[in-house]
């Protein structure tokens, strides 16, 4: 992935409320979101998993069931990197607390065979 091909996923405020979503860029970007007004103040986990030619994004608050956020195509031969990121592009006051970061094999439960 590079400056022309990238994906970001997480929670952001849009239309005045928190939204879980993803931006997928392959020359052009598209954005998908879903409102999560019940998530502020809770521990949110975003899981990105790669298998075959797909990148699967899921998220949850606390120990709730995983919600599918996005499935995006990804060239199986493409090199990819990942890491935490936060920003407040138009004003100050954003407070974000990262409580963990892990990298490992794709979760087989997210990519069932058959």
From TrEMBL:
Gene3D superfamilies, per database record: 2.60.120.200
Pfam families with a match to the protein in the record: DUF1349
Domain of life assignment: Bacteria
Organism from which the protein derives: Micromonospora fulviviridis
Family annotation (PANTHER family): REGULATION OF ENOLASE PROTEIN 1
Protein name: DUF1349 domain-containing protein
Family matches, as InterPro entries: ConA-like_dom_sf, DUF1349
């Amino acid at each position: 992935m590079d400056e022309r091909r990238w994906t970001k996923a997480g929670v952001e405020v849009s239309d005045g409320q928190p939204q879980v979503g993803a931006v997928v860029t392959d020359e052009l970007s598209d954005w998908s979101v879903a409102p999560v007004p019940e998530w502020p103040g809770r521990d949110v986990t975003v899981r990105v998993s790669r298998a075959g030619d797909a990148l699967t994004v899921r998220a949850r608050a606390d120990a709730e069931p995983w919600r599918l956020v996005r499935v995006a195509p990804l060239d199986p031969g493409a090199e990819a990197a990942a890491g935490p990121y936060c920003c407040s592009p138009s004003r100050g006051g954003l407070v974000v607390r990262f409580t963990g970061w892990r990298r490992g094999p794709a979760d087989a439960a997210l990519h069932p065979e058959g």
